[in-house]
Design goal:
- With 988 residues, the protein is mainly beta.
- Helix content is 9%, strand content 50%.
- It contains eleven helices and 55 strands.
- The longest helix is centred in the N-terminal third of the chain and has 19 residues, at 2-20.
- The two termini are 57 Å apart.
Length: 988
């Protein structure tokens, strides 16, 4: 019996041993070669399977692996993947992937390419430069980051958009914005404010024809490709929580406006009789002695406006599935009381391997924005536009009632005034309150795709995308105060949607292991529809009854709609010999409903080549030369950025003639309207030395032909212009980018980078054989051989110290006191900056990190229209003036820039200011908390606290609110803002 028990126990132990022998336990640690610190969140996978884990806050992992497994694959973003033999206890060292040439980027319709194998001109900005910025618009982070890309944020409105321009102005009247692509599908620029910047993984800018020709008719101005964040299959779920809170202030104001005492002194200068006017002197003494003076700039936008943002995301994957889910809340008040923006975003990116040959995915972004822009902001010189009012309102007008005792002495301030009797205006705050306005937009940006891989190397993809939004604007005018008995209500609606259907087949193969080919063919259709409707009701009598149905009268509703369709066929062939010689060919046939029937189709193409010189035997032994590439490309793209139906002669109704309803022609039409085309040559050299210094330089020549322009017509036709293909233009210049890793060791890292672009623009052809054409009332003129945007004004020569009169130069350079538009000449100053760029630095010491990014625009000028009202003696009695006006000419011999009131101010070169600027665009300082602190929580994997500042420093000679206004003149613009934000980010 005892022997049977022993035998039974032995068999049991053998069974347990057999079971446990099927798996084995492996432990280890993953560290960084660069700083010898643990790598948190590194992926540890059994090679050839989906079984794996990620490292903890100490860089450690614990994994049960099959007994048959031989190797582990260790990977982490920004580091080179390592495949190592399995041991019971392991130590894996990951090396930094310092060569950006290994970064995979999406540059067209096919699968991604390593940046080092891209023939075209491409620049990538990663999520580190985009995330955690205290603005709603993701595009703002691109300013100064990409050579040749000019980015403007021309308004401080929380809902403000950005303006982008790549390598100069390529068209005069047609669209000059790049094409924007999100996860493979086109989107409008207005979508930028609907995206959460923290959801963006990278932005890639395509500059030359080789990289953009595949997008054909929409890519004349370059392409900006945005890729949202995604999970990895087999990645353990990671939860991230990010919270920010801060405030906004006006960036600054370089104008010095008068206080009450100065303004009273100016009145005495303008009218010496006021020195003996007892009523005037009594008023002056009362205001000056009691310190009563209103700084209207401080009243309207001197406050700090709170900003807050909260983001939660989950990223990860399992066998055959990866996902990224996020929620974002953004809330910003404007520095003006009636502007704000609140946004909620939801994003879901999911991909699934349904079978070994079928993959599907969905990328979906939902957003809801509720916002408002400041009242009267669209009317530049309205006395109720607060930006303009802050300049012209007199300092002796107070916001609140002045209180006096029985003896007439000042004892303080009372209630807010709704009407400014000294000015004859209502208080803009009051008008904003009784004319509320509220806007909202619900938007969806989404796409789905199916990938089929029937045989090795062949990838067939069908993608469907939609961009759609519903916009609503509710406006009310309460029947109180100035609108007593005349209340109004209006509702505006807009519905927009654009469907994109893209089908591609891509085949990759190689011959003899050295000849690599990629062939792609595709078809795309884009269907866009837009509809607007606005209805008004008037004569509303009670503010409690503000529905439109309560109005006793109404206006004719406004109703517009348009449809447009693009159809395209395209293909590419890429060849690579032994990673040394690359050739790319691309062609696209585009059809658009925007053009005349016989001209709706056009063909665009490109050819590009690259020589990877470092791969040559004669350079492989040069250890200090890390990389060297020479590339060139030539091709064509198109521009169809015009309004629908310009090719058609249209009529409009709703007209009354002689008391009867009628229909009349509204547009001329053009049976020959066709594509604007762009021919681009690009030559570039890229190098990296000592594995620390990277240099890229590119020269380009872009020629725009058949330029779409408003062709002026005689008013006897009943029309002012028609859209024609009538002009040509050239942009020529260079991009230069430099990056240096100065320190890179265990405890320290420090790098600097910079980029600069120079662009020279020239008009090469105009319409009807003309060499010149002046645009009335703009200070701009088109002339063959000159740059578009060079100002054309009469030159101001100063104030004659003998009599205080303005002087000008005539066309021949002679002095005159008779102003004439006929004496206008090109003044050699540009509306568009020929020089632009940015520079920055990043540094870290153990857990402390800092980054600073600067941007600049040089050589741009702008008409400061405000000074026409604030440095003009004509308005000195009714408006406030700058302190400069105190130096007005008074007697012979006075040397000044302010002429007497009898010599009227003109729009001449003295109002034309240098609007060049350099600003500290973004500053981030933070600290990653030590892993040993977080280990005790058992929950938190990583944590960091940080401060982010935006537009903290601006250097400029411009005398207005802010020089970042993309216009030929500035008047009443919402001042730009700077932000101070503190944040914390936790991962679990």
């Amino acid at each position: 019996m005892k022997r049977k028990m022993v035998l039974l126990l032995g068999l049991l132990l053998l069974g347990v041993e057999a079971i446990t022998a099927q798996t084995r336990n492996v432990t280890g640690i993953v560290i960084s070669e660069e700083d010898n610190q643990p790598v948190i969140g590194a992926s540890v996978l059994v090679q050839g399977s989906s079984k794996g884990t990620i490292t903890n806050v100490d860089g450690q992992f614990n994994l049960d692996v099959p007994a048959s497994a031989k190797t582990l694959q260790i990977s982490f973003i920004g580091m080179k993947t390592e495949v190592v033999p399995i041991k019971p206890q392991m130590k894996v060292v990951l090396k930094a992937d310092t060569q950006m040439m290994d970064e995979v980027v999406v540059v067209g319709y096919g699968t991604g390419k390593k940046l080092g194998s891209v023939v075209g001109s491409v620049s990538t900005v990663n999520s580190g430069k985009i995330a955690n910025k205290p603005v709603a618009n993701a595009g703002d982070a691109l300013q100064g980051q990409v050579a040749g890309l000019q980015v403007f944020t021309p308004s401080g409105e929380p809902s403000g958009t950005v303006v982008m321009r790549l390598r100069g102005v390529s068209s005069i009247n047609s669209d000059t914005e790049p094409l924007f692509i999100l996860d493979g599908s086109p989107i409008s620029s207005s979508a930028f404010t609907a995206l959460n910047p923290n959801d963006i993984e990278s932005m890639t800018v395509l500059k030359d024809a080789s990289s953009t020709a595949i997008y054909g008719s929409r890519a004349a101005n370059g392409v900006v490709i945005m890729t949202s964040k995604k999970g990895k299959m087999g990645q353990k779920a990671r939860i991230s929580l990010n919270a920010q809170y801060g405030w906004s202030k006006m960036t600054g104001d370089n104008a010095s406006m008068m206080n009450s005492g100065q303004w009273f002194n100016l009145q005495e200068i303008m009218d010496p009789g006021k020195l003996y006017d007892s009523a005037f002197q009594e008023r002056k003494a009362f205001y000056v002695d009691n310190g009563i003076s209103t700084d209207w700039s401080d009243v309207f936008f001197g406050k700090s406006a709170p900003t807050q943002q909260y983001d939660l995301n989950v990223v990860g994957g399992s066998e055959g599935v990866n996902y990224y889910l996020s929620f974002g809340h953004y809330d910003a008040e404007g520095i003006m009381d009636d502007s704000f923006m609140r946004r909620e975003t939801l994003r879901s990116n999911v991909e699934m391997n349904i079978t070994s040959w079928l993959k599907a995915g969905v990328n979906l972004n939902l957003s809801y924005q509720k916002y408002n822009t400041t009242s009267f902001g669209s009317v530049a010189n309205s006395v109720y536009n607060k930006a303009y009012a802050a300049r012209v309102y007199r300092p002796d007008q107070t916001v609140n009632e002045i209180l006096k005792d029985n003896e007439g002495k000042f004892i303080g301030y009372g209630e807010r005034l709704d009407y400014f009797s000294d000015l004859g205006f209502y208080n803009p705050y009051y008008l904003s309150e009784i004319q509320p306005n509220e806007r909202s937009t619900a938007r969806i940006n989404g796409n789905t795709f199916f990938n089929i891989n029937p045989v090795k190397g062949l990838n067939i993809r069908a993608a469907q995308a939609v961009e759609a939004y519903d916009y609503r604007n509710s406006h009310k005018v309460y029947p109180v105060g100035p609108f007593d008995g005349a209340g109004e209500a209006s509702e505006s609606f807009q519905r927009y949607y654009s469907f994109t259907y893209t089908n591609t087949a891509e085949y990759k193969f190689d011959l003899a292991g050295k000849h690599y080919f990629t062939v792609l063919a595709g078809q795309e259709s884009i269907i866009t529809k837009n509809e607007n409707f606005t209805a008004y009701a008037t004569k509303i009598l009670d503010k409690r009854m503000m529905l439109m149905s309560t109005g006793a009268d109404s206006d004719v509703p406004l109703h517009t709609k348009y449809n447009k369709v693009f159809n395209s066929y395209f293909g590419t062939i890429s060849y690579n010999y032994d990673d040394r010689y690359y050739i790319d060919l691309a062609g696209r046939r585009d059809g658009s409903s925007l053009f005349a029937k016989q001209n709706q189709w056009a063909t665009f193409y490109s050819v590009g080549a690259m020589w990877n010189m470092k791969k040559e035997k004669f350079l492989q032994d040069i250890s200090w030369l890390t990389g060297l590439q020479l590339k060139a490309s030539y091709g064509t793209t198109g521009n169809s950025g015009i309004s629908p139906y310009n090719a058609l002669a249209l009529v409009s109704g709703g007209l009354i003639y002689d008391g009867k309803a009628g229909i009349a022609p509204s547009t001329v039409g053009n049976d020959n309207l066709t594509w604007e085309s762009m021919k681009t040559l690009n030559v570039g050299l890229s190098t990296r030395v000592f594995d620390r210094v990277s240099l890229d330089i590119e020269f380009y020549n872009r020629h725009t032909a058949d330029m779409l322009m408003a062709y002026p017509l005689s008013f006897t036709t009943g029309h002012s212009s028609s859209v024609e293909n009538v002009a040509s233009m050239r942009n020529r210049g260079f991009d230069l980018s430099l990056a240096v890793d100065i320190i890179r060791n265990k405890d320290w890292n420090w790098s600097v980078s910079g980029n600069i672009n120079y662009n020279k623009n020239e008009i090469t052809k105009l319409f009807n054989g003309l060499d010149e054409y002046t645009l009335p009332d703009t200070g701009l003129k088109m002339e063959v051989g000159k740059a578009w945007g060079e100002y054309y004004y009469v030159r101001w020569a100063g104030v004659d110290p003998r009599d205080g009169y303005n002087m000008w130069y005539d066309k021949n350079g002679n002095l005159t006191k008779n102003y004439s538009e006929e004496d206008a000449v090109f003044v050699g100053k540009q509306r568009y900056a020929p020089w632009s760029g940015g520079f920055g630095t990043q540094a870290g010491w153990k857990g402390i990190f800092i980054s600073a990014d600067f941007s600049f625009m040089l050589g741009q000028y702008m008409m400061n229209n405000e000074r026409y009202f604030t440095e003009n003696p004509t308005f000195a009695g009714s408006n406030n003036q700058t302190t400069k006006v105190l130096s007005i000419w008074q007697k012979p011999g006075d040397v000044t820039d302010i002429a007497v009131a009898d010599s009227p101010m003109q729009f001449d070169t003295h109002l034309l200011e240098n609007a060049s600027f350099m600003r500290l665009k973004n500053l981030t300082i933070g600290y990653n908390l030590p892993a040993q602190w977080l280990r005790k929580t058992g929950v938190i994997n990583s944590a960091k606290v940080y401060f982010t500042g935006r537009n903290l420093l601006t250097v400029t000679k411009y005398q207005g609110y802010d020089p970042e206004v993309d216009s030929n003149l500035q008047l009443g613009n919402y001042p730009n803002t700077k932000q101070y934000t503190f944040g914390i980010e936790l991962t679990f």
